Amino acid sequence: MKKKYQNHGACFICTSPYQLIGAIGIAKKLDTDSDLYISGEFPGYDVIADRLRKYDLFDNVLVADSKEVMAKGKLASIKMTFFSEKSLSAFLPEDASYDSCYVSSRSTLKATMLGVLRKRNPDMRRIVFEDGLGTYSGKDTLIRASSTRGKIEKLLGRDLDDPSKIDIMAFLPELVSLPGALSNKEIKQQPRIELNDESRAMLADVFGTGDAQVIDEKYIIFDSKRRGDDLDLLSAEEKDIMDRCYEIVKKYAGDDVVCKPHPKSTEESSAGIKIYPNQGIPMEALYLGMNGLEDRVLVSHVSTAIFTPKIILDCEPRVICLHKILKGNVISENFTGIYEMFRNTYRDKDRVIAPESIEELEDQLKRF
User: Fold this and answer.
1) Would the pLDDT of 1 be above 50?
2) pLDDT digits (tens, 9 = 90+) for 250-288
3) 157: left (phi over 0), alpha (psi -120 to 50) or beta
4) N or C: which end of the chain has fewer CB within 10 A?
5) Cβ(124)–Cβ(165) under 8 Å?
6) Cα dist. 19→23, 37, 282, 285 in Å?
7) DSSP labels, 152-204
8) Which residues are 101's β-sheet partners?
9) Which residues contact 363 (CB under 8 A, 6 or more apart)?
């Protein structure tokens, strides 16, 4: 006899702090109950989950160690898809069923959970919400399955990519362009978190961004990944050029500048700039608790963190992109389209600049 499920309102599946911030903003506006599932793919996920349980945002907050539930390798991923109920037994309650499921990407874990939940409720809506710059890439890889996975899911009677059962939302819906069957989809406005004293206090508590972690400096430099190995984004010569740029920033900023290294860096800039100490706190969370954000100056080669305030808060700090200074660098060339797209979202486009030389960078800083 087929088991009957009592559908709950909604659920969210999150694997990053960015996704959590999006889920919190949506949950605050929902008029239905909701559960939150967090897969431990970022530092401190279990602590954040405990803190979230103190608030009335979600009925249940469930967590899983990603090492225990995530499949490694293509064969393991396929096996997880075929034996999905068993694979998720420690994470997904056996009676869980929802009217809608909010997911921002299509990882193996999320697709497997979607498959189980769609089997329990064939009418469940799949709502794709913001996942950073990937949302604006013009590709549908966050939404649609690979051809192999898609065939397996259809074989199992789980067509998760049926456009009629998918809704899409983003912070900047006017920038989202999708190909194929999704091209005519209406992209809805994703609600942003309304920042007031109460929400700031809650977010500071949840993400651990108390007074000791606040960035007070006006200039914030986001350094590129430095590892001294094949995973470096920059050559030794290019790192030296970036350090010279940072030194110019320090010349005009004085002590009012801090550098936030890439989370995967094992080396630091040699520009002699103060390093932000706590790499475990996501920048998105720091922005949410930052006073005077529009008065800050964000500097980077190609870090997408410089555009996050505009995306999640519709806030417009000054931005200095250094990608044009590294001529011939592939990463720089690929970043040009992203830079132009987000510069065009600014109401005051003069607040976003991309100097083409160190000399031009210095001229711009003099004007600041």
Assistant:
1) no
2) 999 999 999 988 766 667 777 889 988 877 788 888 998
3) left
4) N
5) yes
6) 6, 11, 11, 11
7) HHHHTT--TT-GGGEEEEESSGGG----GGGTTPPEEEPPPP--SHHHHHHHH
8) 11, 126
9) 355
What is the C-alpha to C-alpha distance for residues 283 and 363, in angstroms, rounded to an integer? 28
Please say whether the dihedral angle defined by the alpha carbons of residues 56, 60, 64 and 66, taken in this order, is positive or negative: negative
Q: Give the pTM.
A: 0.85
Query: What mean pLDDT do residues 1-15 have?
Result: 77
Contacts of 146 (CB under 8 A, 6+ apart): none
Element (DSSP H or E) covering residue 310: helix 308-313
User: What pLDDT score was predicted for residue 97?
Assistant: 94
Using DSSP's 3-state secondary structure scheme, residue 318 falls into strand
Encoded tokens for 7: 């559908």
- Judged by DSSP in three states, 236 sits in helix
Please answer whether residues 226 and 259 qualify as being in contact, where contact means their C-beta atoms are separated by less than 8 angstroms.
no
Task: Give me the amino acid identity at 354.
Answer: A
What is the distance, to the nearest Å, from the Cα of residue 36 to the centroid of all Cα atoms in its chain? Answer: 17
102: closest CA among 23, 194, 43? 23
Helix, strand or coil, per DSSP, at residue 128: strand
Task: Return d(Cα 313, Cα 193) in angstroms, integer.
Answer: 7
The predicted pLDDT at position 239 comes to 87
Q: What residues are paired with 60 via a beta bridge?
A: 35
Q: What is the mean pLDDT of residues 286-300?
A: 92
Please provide the size of the chain in residues. Answer: 368
- Kindly give, in sequence order, each residue whose CB lies less than 8 Å from that of residue 349, ignoring residues fewer than 6 positions away: 343
Average pLDDT over residues 184-199: 91
Calpha distance 108→292 (Å, rounded): 40
Q: What is the DSSP letter of 94?
A: T
Residue 147: other Cβ atoms inside 10 A: 8
- Tokens 């999905």 sit at which residue? 84
Q: What gap in Å lies between CA 263 and CA 226, rounded to an integer?
A: 10
Distance CA 198, CA 264 (A): 33
Neighbouring-strand partners of residue 170: 189
State the greatest distance between any 2 C-alpha atoms of the chain, in Å, as a whole number: 75
